[in-house]
Amino acid sequence: MALRSLGHRAPLLWLVLPYAAGLAISRFAHGVPVIPGLTGAGIAAVLGLVGARKNYPIWVCTMLLTLVLTGAASYTLHRNRLAEWDHLPPREANLSIRVDRSYTDTFENHGMGLATIIGTEPHLDDLRGQQIYFSLRRDADTPRPVRTAEFETMGVLELLPESPPENTFEGYLAATGMNYTLTRGRLLNQTNPPTTFRKFCADSQNRFAELLGMGIENKRPEQTGVLRAMLLGQKDELSEAQDVLFMHSGTMHLFAISGLHIGVIALGFQALFSLLRLPRTVRLILGLSLLWLYVQITGGTPSAVRAFCMVALLQISFQWKVPGNPLAALTASALLVLLYDPLQLFSASFQLSYGIVGALLLLGLPLGETMIQRWPVFSHLPTSTWHWWHHAISAAWRALIGAWAIGLASVLFSMIAGIQYFGLSTPGALVANLILIPVASFVILAGMGSLLCGMMGFTFGTVLCNHAAALILLVIDRAIRFFVTLPGVFHVAAFKASWIGPMALTLLLGSMLVGYAGGWSRRTGSWWPPLVIVLLTLIFGVNFA
Description:
The chain has 545 residues and is α+β, with helices and mostly antiparallel strands. It has helices at 13-28, 34-51, 56-79, 169-175, 196-212, 221-232, 240-249, 259-275, 280-297, 302-319, 326-340, 348-374, 388-422, 429-455, 459-483, 500-517, 528-541, and strands spanning 91-103, 110-119, 131-138, 150-159, 180-192, 424-425, 491-495, 542-544.
């Protein structure tokens, strides 16, 4: 019997993969000159169009070369690094900046975030348009930095290393396109206020944080912080001990806004609108509008925007009855994200988001279906003779096998990615996530119920939902604390060479693509290549502490 999860087409992969390869080549080559790169891409495109009528392989090769060169030039253009600054020391500078992303204040009267330089002193005019990370003191009467607001600043401007280690804060900044940091200074004054919409989003986030703490903030401060982190992305609400706990158990993704959260909230909206008997078109437009507003209120983080793009593409394809599928939606969202911001390819959140979801679609779902077909329960009895308990046991068996296969696929990818970005190997994450992902979904739904009740003025409903969420989070906390004490749940680890991690991830995803394209048949190695790649990497390429 053919598997429903196999045979899905994603033609945009022919655009995404060579474009991403060009970005990677340019990064490791420390940038490809923009003009020669784009010129070469143009020449290759023309040759491809000319040769398309005579020789199809030539057309394919030239089109792939065009995309590779375009990606290489795009990296250099977006990184926009000024070579003349490489040998200059840090210096004090007065800059005008426009806030692109604001982080929650860690300290009182402090502002931090990402910004674009829009004004400088004459001798620093080449810095206009550069993106920076700022962490500056602000006076009590200076407004908190909000997205699109403009400020006059004074601080120490320092160039970031071109290729810092990926598992450091500098590596995170470089992966988001930052070239400079502005610290040890002050936000002098706000020259332009944020736009009305951004002010509304900031005020709404503060209101949401207040609602999520209603009735539990004084009694359960730890659970309140986790609830705010899950629903609003305020990871600063997590204590250092909680950060370590979730990292060691491999469950940190549950406590920050990601695809799981956006997907659960989208399903919640659709269920609510169905109960209200709204027409399908109204449900689609209203649901996506509210979901996009939620993404913007919570800060518009790249991971949330990526998840929204995928959910939107899936819902639109279902609404218009277009022959879409999750793999095509994942590929389309990746292409849109990379065209808008190519440097996201090198961020840990991008690779974890698309890598894990890709592993689920390419390996997890087909493996689960295969195992269910191969080992069905009550196969000796005709289905028409089953009692209710036969159906219940069969459904539970299918759910268990499906969850195990999905968990195995995600762990295979996260085993390598976890060492690459966090210096941790978490083999226990498979068991933890099998149990906690469904449970965490109820926390997300309870949090959304709290916000909806609060916006309608139904205070009792808000308090009730908060208590329900806090109770579930308390159980999760106790379970994780016990779980990480078990031997072998996590190990401190590092690759023996810096190139091993990226190479292993590339080979792993490549083996999954080949296996999926070949139907996971014996001629492509069946299900074994991904497992062999991970095992060989762990045995020969990793130092365990």
